[in-house]
Design a protein that fits this description.
Elements lengths: L6 E2 L16 E4 L5 E4 L1 E2 L12 E2 L3 H10 L2
Antiparallel strand pairs: 1-2, 2-3, 4-5
Length: 69
């Protein structure tokens, strides 16, 4: 899936960690699932095919507001 196919829910208003496309973000896919962008975390080894990212609390809060939840 390409970035153009995702709806960006966060980072649109700028924030303390945001500079163009390198900030933590939450995206929504056409099927309604979510893609998270953040710093890679090595807190533990996830199962094959999965990854861990660390994002600041304000990012999911902003995504929830953008969805009207």
């Amino acid at each position: 899936m390409a970035r153009e196919e995702l709806t960006r829910l966060t980072g649109n208003v700028g924030g303390p960690d945001c500079d163009d496309d390198d900030c933590p973000n939450v995206y929504r896919t056409a099927s309604g699932s979510f893609v998270f962008q953040g710093s890679v975390s090595d807190a533990f080894a996830p199962p094959a095919g999965e990854g861990l990212v660390e994002i600041p609390e304000h990012v999911p809060r902003e995504a929830i507001r953008a969805l009207g939840w």
